[in-house]
Amino acid sequence: MIDLKRLREDDAYRQRAIAKGVESSSVDRVLAVDAEHRQTLAETEQLRAESNAASKEIGRADPSEREAKIAAAGELKSRLTEVEGRLETSSGELNELVLTIPNPAHDSVPEGGEEAFRVETVVGDTPEAPKYNHGELGEHLGIVDTARAVRMSGSRFAYILGDAVRLQFALVQWTLSKIAAHGFIPVVTPVLVREEMMELAGFFPTDRNQVYALEADELYLIGTSEVALAGMHREERIDEADLPVRYAGYSSCFRREAGTYGKDTSGLFRVHQFDKVEMFCYSHPDRSWDELELLRTIQEEIVGGLELPYRVITVASGDLGAPAAKKYDLEAWLPSEQRYREVTSCSNYTDFSARRMNSRMKTDSGNVLLHTLNGTACAVGRILLNIFENHQLPDGSVSVPEVLRPFAGGLEVITPR
RNA sequence: GGAGAGAUGGCAGAGCGGACGAUUGCGUCGGUCUUGAAAACCGUUGAACCCGCAAGGGUUCCGGGGGUUCGAAUCCCCCUCUCUCCGCCA
């Protein structure tokens, strides 16, 4: 949620919100409704003060005077009811409009749409297409079974079996061990949350059609543990000295993938259910930009440590999404497609999400909003398929990345079952 | 799933229509005393928003949302959560 006060007082801030793609007329509209709302609020509070005073007066008054005073207070009350009606209308309208204003992008973010990204680093060679693409390879090695999964659950589901499972748990363990060194506390989160939490985390109403709903219980399956981690310190004050607070959420993630018919239909690339380790940071507002660089560094250590060729891009302002002030995508080279595809991303939401959650930092001079950041540590499916292609040997077997071997019981090569 | 009890400031716990944003205790922070500390004593101690350069003023908040009333922590309705007993269960 945007900082309304700043939006009306800070021209540069307003300009950057507009630069992110929102119509300048809708910003004007928000400001107009805001002004009207504050006007009505002042009126209401004035009347309430009078009305409160009148009521107290009645309590103190001599019984013989009560009748008259109650009548006078009744008069005040009907005026108050009228003004409160207007206040409700204006605050309802304002609350709705406020959600349409995105978090302004940081100065370092390139302007423009999806194609306007800036490449930050490119690491590793970009190999030729392997013998099998990741979809074919999973079937060839007998470690991914989509045919039977589809028969059971429908498209975009998969059984992961055998050595792929050993690889999955090795990946998770190795990832957790790497980020634990940076003070991330591992968390297994609930995967079902209430509607309210989806709204507070910013996924409803915008991404509602991407989320699985359990109607009988009015619960929703999370698409990322970010939802559950963002809600952890709702309505809380964290001591300045305890910051940053860093969590590594591990959960299965569920996505309907509505509107992606025919896209990435092979293998594990785009599935309805996958496991992911997600980093989430509650940061001192003065240090969140350093925190974002830390997330990026960790992501490079993880993807680089697995010996996958990759590049890092800064996503352009128009492609950022409402809450992010800046976002890095790390894209790994997918040999079968001869292009880079996203495997992780990390964002600084500044105070945009913390404002709605009311997550604050306790300081001597008051409680100020925290900054929140999130980033993928390891999206298991995407990493697995990148390993399948980039570490594929000429005969179609797969060499397990060195760093994972100790975590995979010494497994070195995956060969057909 | 069935039956009952409850949710109040950092914690404990009173208040059950009128001076209550809330008695009190513990804890917090500051002070007196002390070489220092403890004890004792004195004081202090919630948040969000609006107006204001500021000083300051105002509104709202007793789990959440509605209602009754001139007036609600207190009465009524709905929701959420917690606890106890029974049943079921990894």
Structural write-up:
This protein has 417 residues and is an alpha+beta fold. The protein folds into two domains: 4-98, Serine-tRNA synthetase, tRNA binding domain (Helix Hairpins, Orthogonal Bundle); 114-414, 2-Layer Sandwich (BirA Bifunctional Protein, domain 2). The chain has helices spanning 4-9, 11-19, 24-60, 63-98, 134-141, 146-153, 163-180, 195-200, 226-230, 288-305, 352-357, 380-390, and strands at residues 118-123, 144-145, 159-160, 185-188, 192-194, 213-214, 219-221, 237-239, 245-254, 273-283, 310-314, 326-334, 339-348, 360-363, 366-369, 371-379, 398-399, 413-414. The strands form five sheets. The protein has an eight-stranded mixed β-sheet with strand order 1-11-12-13-16-10-9-4. Helix 3 (24-60) runs antiparallel to helix 4 (63-98). It starts with a helix and ends with a strand. The model has no long low-confidence stretch (mean pLDDT 91). The chain binds one RNA strand of 90 nucleotides through helix 3 and helix 4.
Largest sheet: 8 strands, mixed
Q: Give the total of beta strands.
A: 18
The H-and-E topology, N to C, reads as HHHHEHEHEHEEHEEHEEEHEEEHEEEHEE
What is the percent of helical residues? 40-55%
Give the CATH class of the largest domain: Alpha Beta
- In DSSP terms, counting alpha (H) and pi (I) runs of 4 or more, how many helices? 12
Summed over residues and divided by their number, the pLDDT gives a mean of 91
The name CATH uses for the topology of the largest domain is BirA Bifunctional Protein, domain 2
| Overall SS class | alpha+beta
What is the count of structural domains? Answer: 2
Strand order of the largest sheet: 1-11-12-13-16-10-9-4
CATH architecture of the largest domain: 2-Layer Sandwich
